[in-house]
Design brief:
about 20% helix; single chain; eight-stranded mixed β-sheet; globular; about 160 residues; alpha+beta; two-stranded antiparallel sheet; 4 helices
């Protein structure tokens, strides 16, 4: 099933980190490569980076049709991506962001952090964490662009800035 064409409004070729918020509507098992992991109903927060094209990376997470490459790809085709906070930065800050997020939310161990020494880059919340995430970013003086889907009659999946 295709989610439709994705259009993202924002800077081309920007670098930085992002926080992806996904909703899982039911408890269940998901295959992540060769291992099967159990995911509770609720919200999942993933912290990633894109040092070549932030806009393109975020768009990828909202698409069902993609080659499954990263851990997050396996859950983003099973869960509903809701929005992404994009933080433009010339430096890799995803590990630092993950540590901040880990102070507020339950860690989902050994996920999305195979290329660093972090415990994880995926976190769980039983309730919608959007306001806590927004507050966390503002308290740490991080400017961000909020990408989210806007349904429209043409069938395209639009992203808007907030």
């Amino acid at each position: 099933m295709d989610r439709g064409e994705v259009v993202v409004i924002g800077e081309d070729r920007a670098r930085g980190a992002y926080i992806l918020l996904l909703r899982n509507d039911e408890d269940g098992w998901i295959w992540i490569g060769k291992r099967k992991l159990y995911f509770k109903q609720g919200y999942y927060i993933y912290c990633g980076s894109a040092m070549n094209n932030l806009k393109k990376r975020i768009s990828r997470h909202f698409s069902y049709e993609k080659r499954l490459r990263w851990h997050i790809d396996y859950i983003s085709i099973k869960m509903q991506p809701l929005l992404a906070f994009a933080i433009i930065s010339e430096e890799k800050i995803e590990c630092w962001l993950s540590k901040l997020i880990g102070k507020l939310f339950e860690a989902f161990d050994e996920f999305g952090a195979s290329d660093c020494s972090c415990r994880t880059h995926l976190f769980y919340s039983p309730s919608n964490p959007i306001h806590k995430l927004e507050t966390l970013l503002r308290e740490n003086r991080l400017s961000f662009t909020l990408y989210y889907e806007i349904p429209n009659p043409a069938g395209k999946r639009l992203f808007n800035l907030r």
